[in-house]
Amino acid sequence: MNTPDAEQPPAERPALRALLSYARPHRGVLSVVLLLTLLGSAAGLAQPMVIQSVLTKLMTGSSLRDDILLLVGLLVLSVGLMWSQAWLSERTAERVVLQVRRGLISRLIRLRTSELDRTEPGGLTTRVTSDSTLVQHAATGGLIQLVDGSIHLLATIVLMGITSLPLLGITSGVLLVLGVAMGVVMPRIRRVTTEAQRSVGDIGAALDRSLGAARTVKANGGEAKETERATAAAESAYRAGLTGARYHAMIAVLSGLIVQASFLAVIGFGGALVATGTLDLAALIGFLLYLFNLGGPVLSLVGGTTALQQGLGALARIEEVREMEAEDDVDEQHAAPVGPPPRVTVENLTFGYPGRTPTLVGTSFTAPAGEVTAIVGPSGSGKTTVFSLIQRFYDLDGGSILLDGTDIRSFTRAELRRRIAYVEQDSPMLAGTIRENLLYSAPDASENDIADVLRKTLLDGFVAGLPDGLDTAIGSRGLALSGGERQRLAIARALLRRPQVLLLDEVTAHLDGLSETALRKTVEQAAEDCTVLLIAHRLSTVTSADQLILFEGGRVRDHGLHQDLLARNDLYRDLTATQLAAAH
Ligand SMILES: Nc1ncnc2c1ncn2[C@@H]1O[C@H](COP(=O)(O)OP(=O)(O)OP(=O)(O)O)[C@@H](O)[C@H]1O
Asked: How large is the ipTM?
């Protein structure tokens, strides 16, 4: 089975090890990049040596031809090496970000419903967009800069020591200050990066909330409130960004100042040494050139450490997603099972949402195979929750659900959900065309099958009247549908799938009397091939069902036929007196 996690690093891995795990698949090319970088650095480091030799020859009047040729060669080599390493490094960085995003997308789409219930979608999407970009730079450029900067720095220090030990002593003292400052500032940069990324996630969450309920916001004059909410998150990101910028500026100024201070100290002290004849002038100039070159590795170290700290901050947020539970058994690709409709048995079910009082407290009932079972009951009595549990959106706390005597937990989620079609209360559509929506889980359905379900759900006239027919775009960017059209389309999609079990949650809520009667007949016909469970709020749906289950407070209070319940059950009589629907 192809689980999405197979190639992912384990969740609890410390951030740095996780970062290295992203770099590991690219170790070959990263080694080449490092080699090119080191060669480039060596070519740069060799230049002061050649310049020292040129100066000495100038003083002694010897030929400069070889040295000049060597200098030009070194320059051309440095440029070539720099270009190749920059290209390879950037290309690898793009590959790393793709790898991170692939893993995240696959995981996010398979997250358990319970995880999605407690997380803002906006916060999750920024993990895929901006956080992964920070990891990209840390896992490639950052690591390379760090290794190159360290080796380059070490090599420069050794060469400086060879040139003049006393001058190196002075320089090291000044550089130590920079090291200490970086040690103090870097963890702070990591903290503010995490904070900034969290705030960017909050902006996404705030906008998701406002745009997802745009009509409610407009109707309630909530624009100012919603703007304030998203702006507060943007301002918090700005503040964290400013703090980060302050730290960056501090480090940049400090490294500049320290290189300057080293220059002054070396020129003063070195000048005195030259004046007393302890040091020759060529050595002083060579040392100054090394000092000048020190800027490169120092900047590499600062840049690499900053990228690493930012990457580790972002990685901590990405690892949070990996720690969330995902469904790892939803990816099997098999044709839908064609078989007789099963008996659905719910046995002594107990279930509670996290942090809430239990919703179901010992619910038991049986929906006979190939019949229509209607579930009725007051709002909040747990009807929709039973549908969620039948599809394993949540794990049961106790009891069991059986299909023809087989516990649903013995199926993978993919196997189980393939047997079931579900029409949700608000019948959401996916942005796309009507055809794409209909074929969403029945890609092999023929044009005849589509025409048939459109007829059964009374959508044939509606679709024929659209300029692009089945290819008309709907959803967030396309044609808006009425509540009734959306419900009928959702039922058509469910029927096209030819399920063994059909779960309908309040699907007649938006329909007029005529459409409702026609749909009821369609559902009755569908029951010839599948077991239908429907949550009903309309009396007409209830009276024609083969069996009624009356829910109250997470328990089955009664069951039977409409007439029987009407005769013996007060709650049912109350519900029917208000046409069931009005009881909500
Ligand atoms: N995802 C969730 N997280 C936490 N609590 C939930 C969640 N979904 C439902 N609930 C709670 O569980 C209880 C039962 O909800 P459920 O939707 O099953 O009721 P229902 O009988 O279908 O109601 P209605 O007829 O109004 O749709 C309610 O108190 C509801 O607030």
From this structure: 0.97
